Amino acid sequence: MSFLQLILAELKAIVADKAIAVTLFGGVLFYSVLYPLPYLHQVPTEQQLVVVDLDHSSLSRRLIRHADASAKISVIGQVTSITQAQSWIESGRAHGLLVIPEGFRRNLLLGRGVTLSYGGDASYFLIYSAVAEGLVAAGIDAGKQVQLIGMLAKGEAPKKAELSLNSVKINSVPAFNPSLGYTPYVVPGLFLLILHQTLLIGTGILGAGQWRNKGYWSELSPLKLVCGRLSAFMLLYLFFTSFYIGFCFYWYQVSVQASLGVVALWMLPFLLATGAAGIALSTLFTRRDLPTQVLLLVSMPIMFVSGFVWPLALIPEPLIWLSQLVPAVPAIMGMLELNQMGAVWSSVLPKWLQLWGLFGVFSLLAIYGVSKRLKPQPTGHNE
């Protein structure tokens, strides 16, 4: 069998296998819609806030009105204790709380310091950030109003008093996430993770279903089979990658700062390393259902150790070191640096070389594993 015939045979085996076809073609298309769906309303606004007003003064009521007027916050109710407010957050009825202490108005008029307590559901940090930002702005505004009243009472000119209170203005410009939404930083990483997992599952199912049977694969050398299988999957994933990084990035308005050539150069070792890893993993299974089960279980851990949805500082270092053996981890972070943050090639070069290193290691493991699987078994041997 020539190499071209091998690639065609591999493509035919992939397309003819319903489980692989559904995983690759159906999964890639389905997840391109499903995963980004929760993040389409990407700018958090009108977050539900519950208030604990222990002062019950005109100034505390003004503060509540200012908070409710903020685009970030919607005051949905008041309770009498912090415990009640916490129960609202725990039940999902509210996302944040504001506690106005007793003596709030009196202490401000006397020039004493006052502490406003904010809290919220930090499970969704953009929601938590919106609550905190809205409450801080409302608190600062209320403080300025009290200071203005005090300055006017001392005989300060109104215009001069207002200028002194607003002498410094902050112009906050997000560097890498202009919309302050989920889509620009979550979707690019998720798409690479989808490509990674579907490629591993596809190669895993194909191999696991062949090792106990005879076919064209049993008549080839391990090196030729691995190279042919890699080539077949790379042809398919050339289309899938173009669909994700091309059309889907445009459709979901994901910022793109790297050139097409740089992106292609980055994706090449990632796909090769992932394909080789999938072939190597396939040699560990002889049941077609196991690769899907195992790889679906590790999808979420891979996403977290990749560092784009959860701070790496909160993950044990041994897990971070171990995660460097997964091609998706350096690939996702490098792609985000190149495509979303505008990093220069030299800054991601170590990760690119790491991907080539993983490709080399997994290729050797794949060839070794395939040679063991294709080796004739002694009569009476049961796996």
Order of helices and strands: HHEHEHEHEHHHHHHHHHH
Number of helices: 15
User: Biggest sheet, strands in spatial order?
Assistant: 2-1-3-4
Query: Strand percentage, roughly?
Result: 5-15%
Q: What overall geometry do the principal axes of the alpha carbons give?
A: elongated
**Which bin fits the share of residues in helices?**
55-70%
Structure, explained:
The structure is a single chain. With 383 residues, the chain is of the alpha/beta class. It has 15 helices and four strands. Strands 2-1-3-4 form a four-stranded mixed sheet, sandwiched between helices. α3 links the parallel β1 (47-53) and β2 (73-79).
Any chance you could write out the topology, listing elements then pairs?
Blueprint: H1 3-16, H2 18-34, E1 47-53, H3 58-69, E2 73-79, H4 82-90, E3 96-100, H5 104-109, E4 117-120, H6 125-153, H7 158-165, H8 183-208, H9 222-251, H10 260-282, H11 290-297, H12 299-305, H13 317-323, H14 328-340, H15 345-374
Parallel strand pairs: 1-2, 1-3
Antiparallel strand pairs: 3-4
Quick structural overview:
By secondary structure, the protein is α/β, with parallel strands linked by helices. The protein has 15 helices and four strands.
Label this structure with key terms:
6% strand; single chain; alpha/beta; 4 strands; elongated; 4-stranded mixed β-sheet; 383 residues
